[in-house]
Amino acid sequence: MEPNVRFWITERQSFIQRFLQWTELLDPTNLVVSIEKIEKSRQLLLAHEDASRSDLEDKTVQEAWKRSLSTVHPDNSKLIPGPFRPAALLPFTAPMVFLSVLPVKSLKSMILPQVSFYTYSTVFNIVNGNASYDRRPHESILLGAGVIASSTFFGLFPRLLQVRFSLNSVLSRNVIPVIILAQLSGLNVVASRSLEPLRGIEVMDKEGSVIGYSRKAGTKAIKDTATSRVVLFGTSAFIPEVFSYFFKRTQFFLQCPWSLWTLKLSCTILVMGLMVPVSFSIFPQIGRIQCSELEKEIQSATEETELFYNRGV
């Protein structure tokens, strides 16, 4: 069995335990760990199938799990490219989120932040989504290009209306951009991983044996991941706006108006730093689904009452 899958199946964790787990996996050093060290860690875990992360006395095993879980895809055992590993989400998207909700001066100033954010989000979702079904490279490229174009259009359209009709109310300037960012982040997951509910993803028993491919499990995986993205980016964009709203009414702001952007950027990074592990922890990495909820052909292929699937990140 793939070590990462074995870990997530056997380690039944609560939300708090998953949160603490992700704070380790999101360590920025996981972005630059060498391939040689990753391969050694994988060999160690493959050689010791009974190795558990709860082995507190064995620091080598702990480090091996950390490297494996943070750099290797659980479906195909391939290395995740550095810029799209879970630990890269915060440093890449925090500045984009900050720029995406800034007040609009001209539509041109909004194009680059929107294109950058939805391009990165789309590639991240495709790379870290479920990879157990048959998918050709050109399908991913065409799908990704369409998702990037549509997400960027819907992200820019409200800003176009704001500039065209000179809408300067708090609702149009601060609230609506946050709502749109959160909703489009969720829809981006649904669109970029839309092949999963169409073709079905692998469902397996507790031993890791594949029982079949389920479209219903694919739908559930996307729904859970999309929900976590809405929570992540919605909260990360909303809280800095609230802080900024009250900060503008202080004497310090009147004396140093430039400090608003420093506060807002710092607040965005701090909130996202907390919300990334929170959003990843809302649902288990390896989801569980009752066999009775799956297709009839899968129900007839096993006597298990509960099956497992990779939700993706």
TrEMBL record:
<keyword id="KW-0029">Amino-acid transport</keyword>
<keyword id="KW-0812">Transmembrane</keyword>
<keyword id="KW-0472">Membrane</keyword>
<dbReference type="InterPro" id="IPR004686">
    <property type="entry name" value="Mtc"/>
</dbReference>
<feature type="transmembrane region" description="Helical">
    <location>
        <begin position="259"/>
        <end position="283"/>
    </location>
</feature>
<protein>
    <submittedName>
        <fullName>Sideroflexin-4 isoform X1</fullName>
    </submittedName>
</protein>
<keyword id="KW-1133">Transmembrane helix</keyword>
<dbReference type="Pfam" id="PF03820">
    <property type="entry name" value="SFXNs"/>
</dbReference>
<keyword id="KW-0496">Mitochondrion</keyword>
<dbReference type="GO" id="GO:0005743">
    <property type="term" value="C:mitochondrial inner membrane"/>
</dbReference>
<feature type="transmembrane region" description="Helical">
    <location>
        <begin position="140"/>
        <end position="158"/>
    </location>
</feature>
<keyword id="KW-0813">Transport</keyword>
<feature type="transmembrane region" description="Helical">
    <location>
        <begin position="230"/>
        <end position="247"/>
    </location>
</feature>
<dbReference type="GO" id="GO:0015075">
    <property type="term" value="F:monoatomic ion transmembrane transporter activity"/>
</dbReference>
<dbReference type="GO" id="GO:1990542">
    <property type="term" value="P:mitochondrial transmembrane transport"/>
</dbReference>
<dbReference type="GO" id="GO:0006865">
    <property type="term" value="P:amino acid transport"/>
</dbReference>
<comment type="similarity">
    <text>Belongs to the sideroflexin family.</text>
</comment>
